[in-house]
Description:
By secondary structure, the chain is α+β, with helices and mostly antiparallel strands. It contains 2 helices and 3 strands; from the N terminus they run αβαββ.
Amino acid sequence: MKLSQDQIKKIFLSLIGLVALVYCYFSFLLGPLQASQENMISTTAELEGKVAGSKKTMEQTAQLERTAGPAIRLSKTVEVAAYAIDDWLVDFPHADFLVLAKSIARFENENPLWSVASLRLKANEAELGLQTATLGIRTLVKK
Length: 143
């Protein structure tokens, strides 16, 4: 079987087209898919490591809570048992609301063993800018 010059050219061009098609398939379609797959595999491995570390941290935290729980309750009981609680009522017949609020905040910040347990304000109809205030204070006093 003898091939003509024209048939040889067609076969040669078909082979060049086939090589170009195979090259395009591997470089433009399969290459990005493989790169994406490798990226996902590495990301999955990193995330699995982080999940394992988080599980270990959660187990350590749970263990710490189990061992520290009774000690915390005991220390609170000991601290409260060493102090007596006193309640006080203080009346302010004429109090400006803003000055009273700043004073209460400063009072609680400067005295850690004292806390404001209640606050009752009454508006004074005669003088609109002044209120009557009753302040309930709870103190912890060492026995």
